[in-house]
Amino acid sequence: MQDEDVTLGVGMDRRTFVIVWRKGTGLLSAGQQKISQDDRISLIHFNLQIRDIGHPDEGDYTCQIGDGSMGDLIHTIEILMPPSIQIIPPNGQITTRKGGPVSFECRANGNPPPTVQWSKKDGILPSGIQVQNGPLLSLVDVQRQHAGHAGVYQCTASNGIGQPVTSDIKLNVLYPPEVTVVRSWTNTGEGLEAKLDCLVHSDPPAEVTWYQDSFLLQPTDRRLMSQNGQTHSLTIRNIQLSDFGNYSCLVANSIGREKKYIELSGKPGPPIVTSPGYSDPTEYNLSWSVQSVFPILEVRILYRRILFDSCQPTVTNSWSVQSVFPILEVRILYRRILINASFHHPGQWHDLLVRPKQTYNSATSERRQSHIIKHLIPDSVYECLIQTKNQHGYGELSDLHQWFSSQKGRPLIHLSGCPKLRMESCLLMLTTIFSFFRFFF
Q1: CA torsion angle for 43, 47, 52, 53 (degrees, to 10)?
Q2: pLDDT digit string (tens) for 63-90?
Q3: Domains defined along the chain, listed by start
C-alpha cells in the first residue's frame, strides 16, 4: 500500500560477497555504500529499505551478487491503490433539451483497476435496470422527469482496496410546458366562489397567464391568481353572471407553450347513470347523479327499444372446419360487447319530462335522482339519454346507456324472428395438430 515502508532482502549469506542493488538500470547501492540520493532509501545489513513508498517506487529491484556465480534476485514492487473517480463533466451538472441524447463518463483509477457502475438515485435507470456496468452511460431520446430521465445519477468505483467511492452527476432536462387541468368543467353559482386549477410541469420555469374567452385577465379584488408548487390557480370570488364562460391558462417558457381550457358554468353537468345494465322484464329503475349547485327543476329522459333484424347472423356452438387430420384441440376466445349501430335497428324514441325528487351533497354539489320507466317489453335491449335542467338552463346530455329487460344474469335474449341472439362476440381459433412422418432410405 502507498505510504508504507518496504524492506527488500538479499535472501542468502551475504557476509563474504559484494551486494549491488539496482532499480532498472539505475544503481542504488554497492556493498555497504548507498549510491542513491533518495533519503527514503537506506541499507540495513545489505537489505534495501524504502520508506513511504509511492507510485514512483513501483518496478523491479535487482539484487546482484558480487562473485557472479549466483543468479540475480529480483523484487517487484506494485502499489495497491484504492479507487478514485473523475467525473465528466467535472462540475457534475448536465443540461439538455427533451428528446436529445446525453452521455456521462466516469474515469476511475486504482490498482487493481476498479469496477465502475452507474445507478440512479431514488429510482431505476431509464433502461429499466438498477445498475449498469462500465465507465460510460448514454441516454437516447431524453425525456423529462416523469419519464425517469432527469435526476441524479451516481457513479460507483470499487476494487477491493479500501471503501468504494462515489460521485454524482445531476441531469437537468429542458422541455416545453406540459399542462393538465384538474377539472375541465366546474359548476358554481352566483355569490359563490370558484377555483380553476392548471397543473404545470416545465423546465425552465414557465409564465402562466389566464384568459376568459379571448380576454386577458388581470388580478382584481374578486380575481386572485396564485401558485402552490406546480399548481397555478385562478380563484373567482362572489361569482356574477358575467363570470360564466370559457377560461384558459396559457403556459409558456423559452422552449414552447401550451394552453388548456376550463368551462365555468351554472348549468348542470352531464348526468352519470348509476343503474345496472339489466332490469325487471317490464320496468326499469333508472337512477343517476348530476353535479349542480342549484336544484334540478326538470329532467328529460329519451329512451327507445332496440329492434333486431331477423336476418342478422347468429352465433352458435357448432362449426365446421376442413382438415385431413383429426382436430385434436380447439381454442375459443370470447368477450362481451355492447349492442351498437351495426347490430340493430333502433325503435322510436320515447321523450319523458319528469321532476323526480333529489338528494343533495353540499360537499360535492352532487344531486341524485331516479325514475321508474314502465311498460317495457320483456327480453329486449333498451338505450337512453338523460338531460337535466336548473335555473341556468339545460346541461349536457349523459352518455348513451343500455340495459336489458330481463332477469339478472340471464345470458340469452329471445326475440321474435331472432332466435337466441347471444350478447357476445365469439372468435374461434382452431388449432390443428398434424403428424409429419419422415422416411429415410
Answers
A1: 120
A2: 887 766 667 888 998 888 899 999 998 9
A3: 6-77 (2.60.40.10), 82-176 (2.60.40.10), 182-265 (2.60.40.10), 272-425 (2.60.40.10)
